[in-house]
Structures are given as C-alpha cells and as structure tokens.
Design a protein that fits this description.
Radius of gyration: 23 Å
Number of strands: 11
Oligomer: single chain
Length: 365
C-alpha cells in the first residue's frame, strides 16, 4: 500500500473490514466514517431477514439463503459480501456464507443476542432523528419531536408495533448491562432497595435473585409496573410494586435507591428534580445510599459507546450521557456527593450519599 497523502483504489487491495481501517491513509479513513449509514443498513437488513438463524445449521449459498428469505439471490449475495467484508459472516468459495462469532449476535433467542438492538438502531425512529442532527445542533432542541410531531413516548403510545420493538431492544440491553453492573458493584450491604423508574423490574428481580436477603420495591408509573417481569412472582414478599411518578413523592425509609438508565433521559434541571425527590425520601435514613447505574463517558480522543449514546439522548429527549465531572457537578447541585471511583468509558455504578447542609437547586420543581 502506498503511504502518500492521497490514495487510489489500488491501495485498497487486501484491506477489508474495520480492523484494518487504521492502515488506510487519512483521506480513505475519513470516507470510511461516512460509510457508516451504508454498513448499518446492511446489518439491519440481514438481521431483519434472520440470516444468522438460517446459517446456525451450517454454511449456505446466497441462492439457498434467498430461497428461504424470499429475496433476490444476486442482490442478497451482494449485501452479504459487504457484511462479510466487515466481519459479519465469513464468505467461503462459490458465494457461500457461514456464521462466525460476530454474526452470532444476530441470532434470535440466544443469551448474547443483539438482534433487537440492531433492529431498533436501524429503525426510522433513530435514523430520521439523526437526519435532523443539524436542527439540534443549531437550536439545542431534540430532533425527534420536530420529525415525528410528538414526544418519543407519546409516539410509542400511538404506534404499538414501534413500542414493542423499543421494549424488546431495551430488554436486550438491560440483560447485558445488568450483568456488567452486578459484576462491578457489591450490593450485599443493602437490605431494602427502591428501583426508581425501574420499568418492568427486570434488573431489580435479577438483583434480588443474586442477593437472597434483600427486599425490593419497584417504583414506576402505574401503567408501566402492571407489566412487571414474570420472574417477580418467584420472589414473593421480597418484591413489592408501587405505582407513582418520580417527579413526586418516592417511597421513603429504605437504605438503597436505584436509578438505572433514568437520568440520561433528562436535562440537568429535570435530573436535579428527580434527585431531589430521592434525597427527600432518604431523610429518615441518614445511612442510605443512592446508586446511579448509567454510562460514564470517558475522556476525550478515545472511543466509548457513551459518546454515541449521548447523541441519541440529545436527539430523542434533550437528555445526555455524562462524564465524571458532569456527574459530580449535577450531584452536588442536588445535595449528593460521589463516594466511589467507578471506571470511565463503560456502564458504571455511581455510589452517592447525601451531603449535609447542602442547598438543593430546583428542589421545588
């Protein structure tokens, strides 16, 4: 490969996939970044067609796959060729493809499946919002209402099929992040936990199964908690459901409060209001702690997924992912301090304690 400032098509000989992109000259690496929308659409299509499930039984030709998916053999083969060039499936001789480790994540109903997340990431709920990124950059306002004419959750209410896709994707993400959080933090000191905005209770039920002496309260909007995870039935009296709004009173008197993937939906003022409600609930238990489970954005000039998720939050809700300094500032304004040292650039558990004699900003919201 030449090492000059500009490269020709011949310089790409033998260069395939993102792993080799660092060896490309700068101009071609730049173009590769703009190919993201093309590549993501390829992955979206093969996920929707269920190609990974079909290849789980062994290699198949593009013609055989087309017959089973009701697609055009030539068109499908060309799409699969691109997927394989980025490491999704392995292309064998005679236009034949086999599943590999990366493609295993596209299978359905497997422990490490990412299929629903892939489908959600390629859905127009996300892609059309990103097409209006310039609107958000110019105005500071979320693009989703501008594109769809309603807030994100109002849109889901009016479109049940989209709501099912979103719920399935979030359930898939919660399984993965839940395992990371449980491995990272020792919850054993907590006897009674309130999962604030805990959805259907998937993470809380998993937490109670991991710690048999713990009791938990699932707290979320009444129409959300009615669809609680079936696993809660096996927990008996250790699992209690309370309907409510985290902008209002929160069940008091517990030694642990969880906020998992909640605050990133909200701007700082709204987040402070939620934190203030929790601080009020903790007043009778000075030993209680707040555990915030969110993506902790890492330093600049290095990759972490939180920096992309931050754009999702900005476009969808006007919310944000936060780095360590932003969390410390936000917590301080709400009357909390960070008491542990979680890792940057990944999902993390932020252990927080109420500060003494701290004036809480926006506590009356």
């Amino acid at each position: 490969m030449t090492t000059g400032t500009w490269a020709t098509d011949a310089d790409l000989t033998g260069v395939v996939g993102p792993a080799e992109s660092n060896y490309l000259p700068p101009n071609l690496r730049l173009l590769l970044l703009t190919d993201g929308k093309r590549i993501s659409q390829v992955v979206q299509v093969i996920a929707e067609l269920g190609v990974a499930d079909l290849l789980a039984g062994g290699p198949l030709t593009a013609t055989e796959l087309a017959a089973q998916t009701g697609t055009d053999p030539d068109a499908l083969g060309r799409v699969l060729r691109v997927a394989a060039s980025f490491g999704v499936f392995t292309q064998l001789a005679h236009n034949t493809y086999e599943i590999n480790d990366l493609a295993q994540g596209l299978r359905s109903n497997t422990p490490n499946s990412q299929r629903e997340l892939v489908l959600f990431n390629g859905d127009d709920m996300l892609t059309r919002s990103y097409q209006q990124l310039m609107y958000t950059v110019r105005t500071g306002k979320p693009a989703f209402p501008q594109v769809f004419g309603s807030s994100f959750f109002d849109y889901l209410t009016a479109n049940p099929q989209k709501a099912r896709l979103f719920d399935a994707a979030m359930m898939q993400m919660s399984r993965t992040t839940g395992a990371l959080l449980l491995a990272q933090y020792d919850f054993a000191a907590l006897q009674s936990v309130v999962d604030v905005g805990g959805g259907t209770g998937l993470f809380l039920s998993r937490l109670l199964q991991e710690y048999p002496a713990m009791h938990g309260v699932l707290f979320d909007l009444p129409d959300v908690v009615t669809a609680a995870d079936p696993a809660v039935d096996r927990l008996g009296e250790r699992f209690r459901i309370v309907g409510g709004d985290f902008f209002g009173p929160i069940p008091a008197g517990h030694d642990g409060y969880l906020l998992k993937a909640v605050l990133h939906d909200w701007n700082d003022d709204d987040a402070i209001t939620i934190l203030s409600r929790i601080r009020e609930a903790m007043t009778s238990r000075p030993d209680s702690r707040l555990l915030i489970c969110e993506f902790l954005v890492g330093p600049g000039n290095q990759w972490d997924r939180g920096k992309l998720l931050d754009l999702d939050m900005m476009l969808r809700f006007g919310g944000r992912e936060r780095d360590r300094n932003q969390w410390i500032e936000l917590l301080g304004r709400a009357g909390f301090c960070l008491t542990n040292d979680p890792p940057d650039g990944r999902w993390a558990v932020l252990e927080c304690r109420p500060t003494r004699n701290t004036q809480q900003t926006n506590a009356s919201h």
